[in-house]
Amino acid sequence: MTIARFAALPAAVAAVLALSFAPELANASEKLHGITTHGAPRLPADFEHLPYADPTAPKGGSVVLSANGTFDSFNPFVLKGVPASGIGLVYETLLENVDSEPTGMYGMVAEFIEVADDRASVTFYLNAEARWHDGEPITAEDVVWSFETLVAEGAPLYRAYWADVVAVEARDTTTVHFTFKDGSNPELPMILGQIPVLPKHWWAGKEFGATTLEPPMASGPYRVADFEPGRFVEYERVEDWWGADLPISRGRHNFDSIRYDYYRDITVEREAFKAGRFDYNNERSSRNWATGYDFPAVDKGWVQREVLPDRRTRGMQGFVMNLRRPIFEDRKVREAMTYVWDFEWVNKTLSDGNLIRSESYFAGGDLASTGLPSEAELEILEPLRDQIPDEVFTTQYRTPTTDGSGNNRANLRTALTLLREAGWEVGADRKLVNAEGEPFAFELLLRDPAFERIALPMQQSLERLGITMTMRTVDTSQYVNRLQTFDFDMTIAVFGQSDSPGNEQREFWGSASADQPGGRNLIGIKNPAIDQLVELIITAPTREDLVTRTMALDRVLLWGHYVIPHFHTGVHRIAFWDKFGKPAEPPRYGIGFPSTWWIDPEKEAALTAARGQD
Question: How many domains does the chain have?
Fold first, then answer.
């Protein structure tokens, strides 16, 4: 999987969504306008615009969005600091993925791409018109410098993603060539296509590894216009942007300005939306969607609401147990934890029954494991039998269930049995203790107070077992710093996935990333069998092999009981003030906002007039 377009910024410890797998090329040594996982790209070389963009969309107007927490840096490429929301608007990559295809990528800074027949190298041919915001041309030397600097001084994920690259060279001012250690990692061309290209001349004399609030020089459709750390950041559209007339850009990047206002409390944030302080809200709470939009602006039609299908492969969100903590080393203890959280009660009481329990690290699509392992999976799993749980071979994974009444006694009895098998007993003061008399106590680290309401029932159930779980909600900076150093017992995290998993699986589950500060192996997994399964996914020669190997990994992760699985919804719930125009159909794998929406002058004028008369 490639590095998503700054959605997986290391300082934000977020989830990644992107692309991977072997680009099968009909003519492997020819210059191509795009690349995909199977066969030729869906869009022809002469495509005029993306199918979900309107090339006649008007430019102009402003949009105000919200962000949660704070920021203190415009450098999203290092561990230090918290980068500003929307900072990806100012940067461009060699290639860009499109949301109408599961894995399609097309030229951006690179006009063409050429993959060697043996897949042991790739060449990018830069667009001769590509320019930095100061008018200087983007060169192959910039690409080489970006790669080498990110590997040497950037966040650890860059070194991990590009570990199979053995050489990079600028063959001329617009041609850059990457050589791989071999041709066994077929996703590397796509991964390298997502390199954030940075200006070597602007960074000269600056400390790359430091945080900075100096607005960056870049090459994207927007630049930083104004900001106040922790309060807001505003981006303005670059009027003479070099990429405006590229087919992949027509009908996109329509707003003159995009501003992010920061809120530290989600309740205040929602009230600000109702008051019209910002224009668009992607509602994540099904309960709030059902009950929190009964306000005058909705009744009057000033605020529109839509529910759109979410066709993406979902990752895993859950209570994450840190295996670096002795209390969570034992698999029986972790399994016991899965019996404590009453999802059915949470779903019924707090979310009106709208949630779907996650029972896969790759829910949705064809990657999720189901039933028992197939013959093809068994061929992979059998050699690993002595390193993975027996249940992988004998039992279909299912999360524990309740009747939703709030009476979780049966599951708690099962949990207590597992805990006793792991060496924990109820002491004289009704507290659970180990053989040394040490109490079972841990902290749940949170960033968003909204998660407290789904954690509280678990805290109460744990107390009945004699376990003390304290909840601590901290600000964004402290949360990020603690996760980067793995300084937590349990937290809530998301492991984002795509339709084509690949290199990122090393970061999520690989032994090499378990002790790497700033890495994404939050759990601390060190399992040789999982390492082997990850490498099999990365080197999968066909889509069929990729699916089989991903299912095998999914089973091993599930039966490792590394997380207490949460839920997903399968839809996007969006609300927005009625001032926008948008294409008739959203992209298949997203919403298209803000990239392809625009300000409708007539709607905006009518809304302004109506609100003024109210």
Answer: 2
